[in-house]
Amino acid sequence: MDILSDEISNVLRELGVESQRGDGRDEGPDDFIVTIPVRTGTMEAVVDAKWRSQPLGPAEAVRWRESRGGNAILALPSIPKQRGDQYRALGINYVDSGGNAFLNFPGFHVHVEGRKPRLRANRGTSAQPASTNPAGLKVAFVLLVAPESIGLSHERLAALAQVSKGTVTNTLIDLRDRGHVFGERGSRTLIDWDRLAQDWVDGYVRDLRPRLKELELTGPQPDWWTRDWVDIAAGTIGGGSALAHFGAELVPDRTVLYSDPPWREIRRDARLTRDGQAQVILRERFWSAGLLHDDRFVPPLLAYADALAGGDPREASAAQKLANLQQWAFAR
Length: 332
Fold this sequence. Notes:
This protein is of the alpha+beta class. The protein has three domains: 3-112, Trna Endonuclease, Chain: A, domain 1; 134-210, Arc Repressor Mutant, subunit A, CATH 1.10.10.10; 213-331, no CATH class. The chain has helices spanning 3-14, 58-68, 81-89, 134-145, 154-161, 165-177, 193-208, 222-228, 239-245, 264-269, 300-310, 313-326, and strands spanning 18-20, 31-38, 41-49, 73-76, 93-96, 101-105, 108-112, 181-182, 189-190, 214-217, 236-238, 255-259, 280-284. This is HTH crp-type domain-containing protein.
């Protein structure tokens, strides 16, 4: 899958439609198969992901429908409301990178409007480099926090980063073109960790962090989490607590936990509620739980990036102290 296909797959999953990746049955280079829950059980549909600067016009959309049939789904970076109205009138199922969608199948109906696209293909410009889009940043994160992973297979890297194998392939090619990676599998080498880390922090703050789901709740104070929370598989401690853990001078006033939505286990075990002032932030984990092994805290690089993204002056100052302790050249 390419960048657009990955984003569309994520959007469809949020709408209750699961992708079948790498099953070898794709009907074209930009197609993938999805499973739709319908009245009689499930059915399969082909998603045609088209990276275009402009949506299909009505006449082209008619030809697309005739060539694809009623069960196909048209996927584009962006579908304006007016164009969506036209597609629905033509009986075309569609979805864009922001989640604007019309899916009309027996016993399964979705109609979403008004969402901002996550990807844009501007006329006359190329797509965002593979290693700096949200999916590629997940791969780069794995390489940065576990440099030994550079020699792993594409399949294993995809599992650790929770992305498709195609995303790993495209990301490694881009990293090689940009001088971050040298060689092929078995002899691949990560070059200049600091330079890649700087690029990753910028990309994380700009493109990945805003896309992560999160929920603010009331719960135990930060010292409880650092002292008593040991369920590593359920949640990894980040934010100010991680900064303090790594030696930065900070008394945190809230706790960030990275885990998989909808966070039922953490909410139950820590007795988190919506009542009162929020002291706990549950944030979507964007890596495999096995990446960090037995670490209770997120890696220093993520704690640093989160401090820059959060806008808290205390945490930003602590992040700079952490960078000094870690001797990161890019943060000097």
